[in-house]
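Our consortium's second objective concerns turning raw sequence data into structural hypotheses that experimental partners can test. To show how far this objective has progressed, the report includes one record in full. It was chosen at random from the queue rather than selected for favorable results. The single chain below, 409 residues long, was entered without modification.
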Amino acid sequence: MLTERIARIMAKHYVCDSCVGRQFGQLLSGFTNAERGRILRNALAMAIDAGQELEVEPSNFFGYKFRQNKDFEKAITKPGNCWVCDGLFTRLDSLAERVAKQLKDYDFNTFLVGTIVSRKLLEREEILWEAVGIETAEPLRAEINREIGKRLEKLTGKRADLKKPDIAVLVNLQTGRAKLNVNPLYIFGYYKKLVRGIPQASWRPYYKTSVQDIIAKPVMAATKGKAHRIHAAGREDVDARCLAWRPFVLEILKPKKRAIDYKKIIKQINSSKKVLVKSLMCSNMDTARKLKEASPDKSYRVLVVLDKAVKKSELKNLKKLVGTIHQRTPERVLHRRAELLRKREVKAIKWKFVNKKSFEMFVTGSSGLYIKELISGDNGRTRPSVSEVLGRKAVCKQLDVVNIGRIKI
């Protein structure tokens, strides 16, 4: 019987409406647990007043006026805190107000609430479940998270988001303090690197600046973030230019501001004369992951210098490079990458004679093709190579990325 289950909840201690109603939280929609608890308490009071003999703690009915069962009414005393939650639900308003004050320094549109519940409260909830069952119950933590979230929505005008919140709030219910876990701000865009001698990612103390630093500087000032990372579709060498638009995502850690003027940021970055950006917009980690996993074809312009003179007609041997290229991990990166044999493709090649010891070469290849080693041969570690097909020692004097294949985002 329902009345007997309700009575078991209130058998020995005072239990508040929320904690009573939560044991039936899976029944009927459109009610808060506090409303369910009040309905059930009223129903039990009527049963007691009608003469049904039930073992309950009288303080659960403080304020009720019994018409028939006056003996029970005389036993009623003013209750203390709820035995299950220790009066927690009476403090939710003040907890939410405290959290809202902490959130004032941050721009955000969505949030998620989590709580640290004391072992004492969890153990008492389990004792209650043993008495009445868990078939229709909702966990204490779930209700507290939801109720604090509802209050924060009213106080901040923002909405709760269980999947991808801007800020996650972790409330310690014992201390009343909240820890804010601010999720990163992701900014998508495209960049060109117009100069040689700077890396894509920050590389201090070896390089004073980088593409990442130049892009991040005005963004950090606008967002008041703590740190930044760059995620891009590949990267050019330090001594290479990237004259194609390379897609990237800039990740700003712990930003205080999210609403920024992208047009203004673009102007500030482009004034550096070293890096150009376009199409900046708010993004997400999924896009950053797709960029890192992408493998588009790329086209390069290379200035090749030879140790011996070559006739213009001999350059037709460069056609032999079209097809599969076998490349062992280059000697220049062996200290940080595993020794592997990779198969890459040269898909198209053109050339322009400059003089007897140099020429320009235009190469389109698959992602991951080491261009400098395609030129030099890397002491036989890349085959075939320009050095091999021309029979002369060849080196890459200048390298530019001139096209990057389209990436579906």
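The partners drew two points from this record. The chain has a mean pLDDT of 96. Residues 2-74 form one domain. Both points have been shared with the crystallography group to help prioritize constructs.
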